[in-house]
Amino acid sequence: MTNSYKLMFHTLLDAARTTIAAVVSLLLARLLKLPEFYWAPISAIVIIQSTINPRTLAWQRFAGTALGAAVGALIATFFSSGTLVYAVAIFLCGALCALLRLSGAYRFAAITLSIVLLVAHQHPAWIVALHRFVEVSLGIAVALAVAQLWPSRA
């Protein structure tokens, strides 16, 4: 088999692996009636397509999502939304990640915080934060299961 066929074959296997992780995450999130179910397959794709160890990235995404959801819920509960509040919250996430030695989790904390604080929702912030955490965690769990059962050959 030539190198170009090998590459195409491995790319197709990777696409199948990613598809399984994304679709299983989607179906589970819908089964659980999660309001923004699409975060589960997005998270699965981020983990399964990563060029770094899936467990490392999963831990960073999990910890960052938890931190961003908690900070976002607390800030939204006690302060009115605005640019200054958002700026302080983003900085606070970075400071907490540094303090907790979770520097790789900061981007995920900032993303989750941004969704909780900046996107208009019909539910209180703590419910939105909890949903986001569950949706993302589901995608992470499925991606880790698929990565364990079907390791990447890359």
Summary of the model, kept short:
By secondary structure, this protein is mostly helical.
Written description of the protein model:
The protein is elongated and about 60 Å long. It starts with a helix and ends in a 5-residue tail after the last helix. The chain has one domain. 77% of the residues lie in helices and 0% in strands. It is mainly alpha-helical. It is built from 6 helices and no strands.
Which SSEs are present, and which pair or pack?
Blueprint lengths: L2 H29 L7 H10 L5 H25 L4 H17 L6 H13 L6 H25 L5
Q: Which features characterize this protein?
A:
mainly alpha; 154 residues
Low-pLDDT residue spans:
none
In percent, how helical is the residue content? Answer: over 70%
Shape estimate: elongated
> Could you give the distance between the termini?
17 Å
